[in-house]
Amino acid sequence: MKLRVMLADDHAVFRDALRMWLELAPDIDVVAVAHDGHSLLQGVGLARPDVVCMDLNMPGLDGIETTRQLLNIEPDVKVIGLSASVDLVRVAQMFSAGALGYVLKGS
Predict the structure, then answer these.
(1) What pLDDT, in 10s, does the model give residues 50-66?
(2) Confidence of residue 86 (pLDDT cuts 50, 70, 90)
(3) Phi and psi (nearest 5°) for 81?
(4) Per residue in 11-49, is it b (16+ CB within 10 Å) or e — as a string?
(5) Which residue of 53, 76, 81, 84 is 20 to 30 Å from 107, comparing CA positions?
(6) Residues 36, 37, 39, 44: what is their CA dihedral angle, to the nearest 10 degrees?
(7) For residue 97, what pLDDT is reported?
């Protein structure tokens, strides 16, 4: 059974590169991508991901608030936070919102 992953990031080049990299794994299926929190929340019901890789800093609805709202409507989804920088306050807020992990984009 493949792990169903949805990506949310406002940087298209990063989002597309991460998608290509994840799709190299035989047990991962990238089922949807979103460029902001609003589009993620609109598409998550149809995509039905197991995991969401969520950028912390998106315009409009940021990753922290999107994570809170997402887990209210889809509590079984696992969220991994993504960010280009280490801001310990924002990382703590992401975990408080319900994320289970955090990865630096440069990793």
Answers:
(1) 999 999 999 999 999 99
(2) confident
(3) -80, 145
(4) beeebeebbeebeeeeebebbbbbbbbebbbebbeebeb
(5) 76
(6) 130
(7) 97
Say which residue the tokens 């919102």 belong to.
Answer: 97
Q: How far apart are the first and last CA of the chain?
A: 27
The amino acid present at 62, given as its one-letter code, is D
- Tens-place pLDDT, residues 37-46: 999 999 999 9
CA distance 11 to 98: 23
Q: What is the pLDDT of residue 11?
A: 93
Are the C-beta atoms of residues 64 and 97 closer than 8 Å to each other?
Answer: yes
Residue type for 78, please?
K
pLDDT at res. 87: 83
